[in-house]
Amino acid sequence: MGAVLAIEQVSFAGHAYPESLFRLYAADRRSLFLIALSGEATVGYIIARIDRWGAEIVSLAVHPASRQRGVGRTLLNAAVRRMLRRNAQSIRLMVHIDNRNAAAFYRRQGFRSVGRIAEYYEDGGTGIRMRLPLAQISRSERKISSTRNAPRPVVQDLAPR
């Protein structure tokens, strides 16, 4: 858990989630908590949750030294496959309006902006609500593809099944 918290801190600084929230998601059967390993090092994580409206990505972060190597995409694709197996019809998430890199990443993965919520974040920032309908994803689109011929990280599940 320490490596995940370190990635959270370096990725979100003053807006990082507390350790207690990570432990809550790791223990919740409705949650999906995946980590990406490169060798023995944790290089990223994704937390998603199933609810009556589908699935929600709570957080996805990759250590800065491992960005632009397919880690985020690998984690997202692994989460999408698992959510499909849990019969989720769509996945939604929220991105801070100032986080253009994250919004662009999610758009490249097929998410579309479906609205904005003013003052969603603690800093008063607007949140961009994004959604990926899972019914439209074909089998070929579910395959993981790495970028830049980088070795794919190994994905492990931290949440109970």
What is CATH's topology name?
Answer: Aminopeptidase
Please report the distance between the alpha carbons of the first and last residues: 18 Å
Q: Which percent band covers the strand fraction?
A: 25-35%
- CATH class membership: Alpha Beta
Output the radius of gyration: 15 Å
Mean pLDDT, to the nearest integer, reads 87
**What's the helix-strand series?**
HHEEEHEHEEE
Low-pLDDT segments = 143-150
Identify the CATH architecture. 3-Layer(aba) Sandwich
Number of domains: 1
Which terms summarize this structure?
seven-stranded mixed β-sheet; alpha+beta; globular; 4 helices; Aminopeptidase; 27% helix; 161 residues
Describe this protein's structure.
By secondary structure, the protein is of the alpha+beta class. The chain has one domain: Gcn5-related N-acetyltransferase (GNAT) (Aminopeptidase), CATH 3.40.630. 27% of the residues lie in helices and 32% in strands. It is built from 4 helices and 7 strands; from the N terminus they run ααβββαβαβββ. The longest helix is centred in the middle third of the chain and has 15 residues. The protein is globular, with a radius of gyration of 15 Å.
Offer a quick outline of the entry.
The protein is an alpha+beta fold and 161 residues long. Helices cover 27% and strands 32% of the residues. The chain has one domain (2-157): Gcn5-related N-acetyltransferase (GNAT) (Aminopeptidase, 3-Layer(aba) Sandwich).
